[in-house]
Amino acid sequence: MCELFGLSSKHAPSASDLPLPEFRLRGGAIADNPDGWGIAWRQGTALQLEKEPLPGHNSARFAELIDTLQSGLILAHIRRATSPPVNTPGNTHPFLHTYCDRPWAFAHNGNVPEMMAAQTAECNAICHPDGQTDSEFAFCHLLRHLTGHYHSPGTDDDWLGILVAISGQIAAHGKFNFLLSDGKLLIAYGHNRLHYLHQPVSADATQTVAMVATEPLGEPSRWTAFAPGELRIYQDGALLKQLSTHSSRPQ
What we know:
Layout: E1 3-9, H1 20-25, E2 37-43, E3 46-52, H2 60-68, E4 73-78, E5 95-99, E6 102-109, H3 114-121, H4 134-146, H5 157-171, E7 177-181, E8 186-190, E9 195-200, E10 208-213, E11 224-225, E12 230-235, E13 238-244
Antiparallel strand pairs: 1-4, 1-10, 2-3, 2-4, 5-6, 6-7, 7-8, 8-12, 9-10, 9-11, 12-13
């Protein structure tokens, strides 16, 4: 099944300090995720995106990016196509949609096929999927439910509380591990399969790089598994909030 990698840091770490080469190999070489790769990253105040519906492990462009990319916010994904089992650019993660005049990035691991019918029935004018995946339909479902709650970048309890509740409801339909960003925050939800690592980047350990991955990269003992239903919000490498949810079917 698909795998995720996320990074949050105040200062852009060197590409050589990141485990992205191993992550790339998991795109069809050392793990069964051969159906596409993508990276979204912050550049200045904008989010950039590159992706291909091709195996990550032998993509020259993927290799070039991870050798040169420097950013304090990264969301990466390698895909094993399931819903639908079709490799196209539109079905390749991450996805970018504009909401509240800001670009939002999203990548998902798992299956929530019921979200396609639910989102279609909502006639959502906030977010229209470009592809056919249950993942992108779930992304639009999240953004729709944030309408009227998210007003500006921040970590107020209002919109995060809505996000936690809807994440739990979506997770009740299957498996729902995801990375989400408004260009400022890295939001990671571990429904049943996600790990995190906080790595010091200064001599006095006052600054850290926060990394999130589906499977531990590098030395496994350094990574910690998310508790089931745990949602973690990072900004500039710091953990701002740690929330939890219990899956329940939406009313």
